[in-house]
Amino acid sequence: MLEYWARVRAGAEPAPRPGAEARANKRRCAHLESHLGDVLARRIVERLGERAIDVLLDAPERVAAVPGVGKKKAEKAHEAARERRAEQEIRAFVEKTGIPYLAMPMAKGLIPDSHDQSAAAARSFVLENADLVFL
């Protein structure tokens, strides 16, 4: 860790921080874990690398090459990746447009109630006065 900070202070291009790859892989695994379990999710991400979600979306047949993954599990992984992508797109849409966001029961957790654009604190007012509602 000291080497990393020494390189930063010297103005050199530092190598990734120690543990950065492990933390990134953990984030990539998080969504898959709920569908496949932590061991299998970790194995898929380790095998497919940083583009694991993209590979699952674009070439789900490559998942079958991961030891312990059969056709059914590959399909579940593909579905989990599709959900993840949809969640990312919804969040990006809300943040880019600046529209208020109010989570309905099935979307709880998609964008936290603490988010700047959350209208959870004024739920009744928002529902009564909205001109347009996206479901």
Characterise the protein shown here.
With 135 residues, this protein is mainly α. The chain contains 6 helices and no strands. Helix 2 packs across helix 3, helix 2 (20-36) crosses helix 5 and helix 4 (52-58) packs across helix 5 (71-97).
* Form type: extended
Low-confidence blocks of residues? none
Strand content range: under 5%
Helix content: 55-70%
**Whole-number radius of gyration?**
20 Å
Separation of termini? 47 Å
Please summarize the sheet with the most strands: none
Number of strands: 0
Mean pLDDT: 76
Order of helices and strands: HHHHHH
Query: Given the structure, what is the number of helices?
Result: 6
Instruction: Specify the structural class.
Output: mainly alpha
Keywords:
single chain, 135 residues, mainly alpha, 0% strand, extended
List the helices and strands and how they pair.
Blueprint: H1 2-9, H2 20-36, H3 38-48, H4 52-58, H5 71-97, H6 123-129
Helix pairs in contact: 2-3, 2-5, 4-5
Give a concise summary.
By secondary structure, the protein is mainly alpha-helical. It has helices at residues 2-9, 20-36, 38-48, 52-58, 71-97, 123-129.
